[in-house]
Amino acid sequence: MLAWVGLLWLIEAIDLASNHALDTFGIVPREIGELRDIIPAAFIHFGFDHVAANSVPLLVLGFIAALRGIRRFLGVAFVITLTSGFGVWLVAPAHTNTAGASGVVFGLFGYLLVRGFVDRRPLDIAVGLIIAALYGSILWGVLPTAQGVSWQGHLFGLIGGVAAAFLLRERPEDGLIR
Prior knowledge:
α4 (70-91) crosses α5. The chain has helices spanning 2-17, 38-41, 48-66, 70-91, 102-119, 122-135, 151-167. With 178 residues, it is mostly helical. The two termini are 28 Å apart. The longest helix is centred in the middle third of the chain and has 22 residues, at 70-91. The protein has a single domain (2-167), classed as Rhomboid-like (Rhomboid-like fold). The chain crosses the membrane at residues 43-66, 73-92, 98-118, 125-143, 149-168. One of its GO terms (cellular component) is membrane. This is Rhomboid family intramembrane serine protease.
């Protein structure tokens, strides 16, 4: 996760040095050619304040999510990124440009919140409850309350995280709850 967050900072430094040339990799809604930007958009930010706001929650939630294995984590991140990006492409206001890792942050939050219930693991349920207590206030971010903030990316990221918990679930083979 340190490498991922470091990459986000490096990309933003390159973006600044190139006079924000990388901002074109954000998602402009409902333009077919923009579908190719769904994955890159999760790595692009509009300034250092933007990347800073995503860094700590991405580090914390990503680290906890990755404890179940890097392969599963990468699958979760992929599902979240696609869901968040496609949701933005589908419903964001016309002529806007959306980018940033906050959809992934909201997705990891949703994933960690429900993973224990889906996998039927008491430890993961406890982790989800702790995550809810620590980060639950971010749920306000799925509402259209702040100008210039992509509530669509947040909402679809959250949906992607919950979907990833179901799509990539692990259940004990013997059927016992652990």
